[in-house]
Design a protein that fits this description.
With about 775 residues, the protein is α+β, with helices and mostly antiparallel strands. It is built from 30 helices and twelve strands. One of its GO terms (cellular component) is plasma membrane.
Length: about 775
């Protein structure tokens, strides 16, 4: 039923799998409204930028460059997922539409230079320009423009507007070559799907085709290219690691059991857990993030431990149900500990952690029920006593027996572990910088820098958020902001900026512009101009002249305005921030203006995720302590708790010593370490002094090998994020395997058991096997 449900939901498209990293940002309800607005603005900026890919075509002469750009634009437009392709010629083709829309607002729209000229009382310069334009062969003056804009102010405004909206995206001549930008807008549905990789592949083929020409060079940049490159590296590494891990586990199980039954049991248990997890989150959520699926699948990898624990019990111990009863207490305690730990994740306000929690809890329960109700029907095969792994387990048991301290020694070790956690809070700090998570693509970075240097295109990662109760307040703030930042633009501390007020001035400024035009142009030069043209030059009136507003009509004609608005805030796009300190100094006193670095904002958000994960891990460890005390008594319970806690500490300290930054993702890896470490010690604690003690030790060793193969090989990945997770897990699992038998307490007095066949004691009844003997320390070990 679960398989049918998952196929219907996932395969039928009823539940969407979201692979878009941007969709993770801001999916919570933090108490700090400002931070929420920051993240919303970052989401908006990244969503806009992720839909744009920039290409730069260069050639030794202008015609060759523009023709190659037109060829590239045509090829890109045919790629599935391309929404629109824009070249400088296409932008020029928008001029009639813009002229027709903005003509009624001509008296209130002044270019920065015209406004400066009129404020200085130099209106004659504009008058002389108008007269020259009237008699120019290339004049665009017509009867309508003369009637509504006799001094031709609108063309000057549109010239400044083109610079703002296009970020200087015209043909550039430099070092004997001509450079032409080609901007591609992508289908919004492309992001978060596997189609973006196909689009990148098709675009790269087009670029490679044009680059075969010796005089043509095409470079590219855009989030979609970086995302595809990172995904390609990660996918290749994961496929390689999955193949190695799967092959290793199959060989391990085959060489140990010489039977297909145990392998089938492990695969069925894991598959059942995955199906249960997917079923749970698809019932609750309409959209599931891919990261939740990946982490959930890896976390319920501990379900394999359940299957190995069952199949490692020798068939001579009794019937399937009798063997199941031998391991049931350990399985149940391991399940409870893991469920409590993962359920603690759901208390966070983050949808991602909630999805991981639900996936993991449901998956573990599904795996547990599979072991109880399905595995007893599968054939089992005993592990031959002559095999090296069986003798290795016996030797390891003897060594562990020799080094296991008495209860007071184990309690002392727990104190050291707890002190280690206290010390780690001072010496180990989180590093949530998302810039360190990816591998990075040197070639793409170099091309991005080239495009930015030559064309001035490609948004700066930093921007400003402007708050205000009304659009008018925000526009006036932006006008004051440009005045403040003008010195930075002049001295090179800032390469460029664009605000909504640059395109649509505030109503206050538009009213001021009317007064400037009336007093600076129409009053002194209106009659002179009227003598040259066949119309009446009538001064504009504030009562009859409409004001341009940032409304839906403007957005329809100027879709670029969407890049400058986010909810009830306006955004100021910055280009080439060279001096952040000078920028912050210039912003002092502007309370409604916030400087935002998307990378820093996202890093801060994932820092919050990490704090929630730490809190959930602490809750899980405390719950595990209570369960252990309830099961084994105060002293033995504390000792048992020390094994997974010590494994987490070793993973934390060991990875820190190796230079692994601790972030949200490595913290999630600590969850896996804790859950598997708890299973190890609980299995051993339940079996000590029992007939199946050596079988349990074998199961724990096999679990370690399978887990290291499945997760430890991640450390070999070329992607830093994947590699760091693998290092943390590998260190933690090895530490858990070493600590588990030590903290579980001493085994029997004669642990070696290197006999060629099972001793008579193993033929005892299940009731005898589950008796509660007195430990060598003179304490009841809590067996039931």
């Amino acid at each position: 039923m679960a398989a049918a449900w998952c196929a219907w939901q996932i395969g039928g498209g009823h539940t969407r799998i979201d692979a878009d990293f941007i969709s993770l940002i801001g999916q919570e309800n933090p108490g700090d409204t400002d931070e929420f607005n920051d993240i919303n603005a970052v989401r908006h900026i990244l969503a806009q930028d992720s839909r744009r890919a920039i290409f730069m075509v260069s050639a030794p002469n202008r015609d060759r460059a523009t023709n190659a750009a037109a060829d590239l634009a045509g090829r890109l437009s045919w790629i599935n997922g391309t929404e629109k392709v824009t070249t400088p010629d296409d932008r020029a083709g928008r001029l009639p539409e813009l002229m027709a829309f903005l003509q009624p607002y001509a008296p209130v729209l002044l270019s920065p230079q015209d406004r400066k000229t009129l404020m200085a009382g130099n209106g004659e310069q504009i008058y002389q320009r108008t007269v020259q334009n009237l008699y120019s062969p290339a004049s665009t003056v017509n009867a309508r423009s003369l009637q509504q804009d006799p001094f031709s102010l609108l063309p000057q405004y549109l010239g400044a507007l083109a610079g703002y909206m296009g970020e200087g995206g015209g043909v550039v001549s430099q070092n004997g070559r001509y450079y032409v930008p080609v901007v591609t807008s992508l289908d919004p549905r492309l992001a978060g799907s596997d189609r973006d990789a196909q689009w990148v592949s098709d675009a790269n083929e087009v670029v490679a085709t044009l680059n075969r020409n010796t005089d043509i060079n095409v470079t590219r940049t855009g989030q979609v290219f970086f995302a595809a490159a990172e995904a390609s590296h990660a996918k290749a590494d994961v496929q390689r690691i999955a193949l190695l891990a799967t092959t290793g586990i199959v060989f391990m199980v085959g060489l140990v059991f010489f039977s297909w039954g145990p392998l089938l049991a492990a695969l069925i248990t894991l598959a059942s857990g995955i199906l249960a997890g997917i079923t749970a989150i698809t019932i609750i959520f309409g959209t599931v993030h891919a990261i939740a699926m990946v982490f959930g699948s890896s976390l319920i990898g501990i379900a394999v431990d359940y299957a190995l624990h069952y199949v490692s019990i020798d068939p001579a111990r009794g019937s399937a149900q009798q063997r199941l009863r031998l391991i049931l207490p350990g399985l149940t305690l391991g399940l409870l500990t893991s469920v409590v730990g993962f359920a603690a994740l759901s208390i966070s306000p983050t949808i991602l952690l909630t999805q991981i929690a639900i996936y993991s809890v449901a998956g573990l329960i599904g795996a547990y029920l599979t072991v109880i109700f399905l595995l007893p029907f599968l054939p089992v095969q005993p592990v031959r006593n002559y095999l090296p792994i069986r003798r290795s387990v016996a030797i390891l048991q003897y060594a562990q027996y020799r080094i296991t301290p008495p209860t007071w020694g184990r309690l002392s070790l727990v104190v050291v572990i707890l002190a280690g956690f206290g010390a780690s809070t001072f010496f180990i700090k989180g590093d949530d910088n998302i810039r360190n998570l990816g591998r990075g693509n040197t070639a793409l970075i170099a091309q991005t820098n080239t495009i930015r240097q030559i064309l001035g295109m490609g948004a700066s990662p930093m921007f400003l958020r402007i708050d205000g109760p009304t659009a008018e307040d925000r526009l006036q703030t932006e006008e004051a902001l440009r005045k403040r930042l003008t010195p930075l633009l002049a001295n090179g501390a800032l390469d460029g900026m664009v605000t909504l007020a640059d395109i649509i001035p505030s109503q206050k400024r538009q009213t001021e512009n009317i007064d400037l035009v009336k007093t600076g142009l129409y009053a002194p030069y209106g009659q002179k101009l009227a003598a040259l043209v066949p119309i009446n030059v009538t001064p504009p009136s504030p009562a009859t002249t409409p004001l341009l507003l940032p409304d839906d009509a403007s957005l329809h004609v100027l879709p670029e305005l969407a890049n400058l608005q986010s909810g009830k805030s306006d955004l100021v796009r910055l280009r080439g921030v060279q001096d952040v300190a000078a920028l912050k100094t210039a912003l002092n006193g502007m309370d409604n203006t916030q400087l935002i670095d998307p990378a820093s904002a996202i890093s801060h958000l994932f820092g919050q995720y990490r704090q929630w994960a730490y809190l959930a891990l602490g809750v899980a460890m405390f719950a595990a302590l209570l369960l252990a005390i309830f099961r084994y008594g105060l002293r033995d319970g504390i000792c048992v708790f020390g094994a997974p806690a010590g494994a987490v500490l070793c993973a934390l300290v060991g990875s820190f010593a190796l230079g692994v930054p601790h972030n949200f993702f490595t913290t999630m890896a600590l969850f896996l370490v804790f859950a598997i470490g708890a299973d190890y010690v609980l299995f051993l604690a339940e079996s000590r002094h029992s007939s199946h003690d050596q079988d349990t030790s074998l199961a724990v060793l096999l679990s370690l090998i399978s887990s290291v193969l499945a997760f430890g090989l991640l450390a070999t990945s070329s992607v830093p994020l994947v590699s760091e997770i693998g290092i943390v897990i590998a260190i933690g699992l090895i530490a858990a395997w070493v600590l588990a038998p030590v903290m579980a307490g001493r085994r029997s007095a004669n642990p070696v058991g290197m006999e060629n066949s099972l001793p008579q004691s193993t033929k005892q009844s299940p009731h005898t096997a589950n008796s509660a003997p007195i430990s060598k320390d003179g304490e009841n070990n809590g067996q039931i």
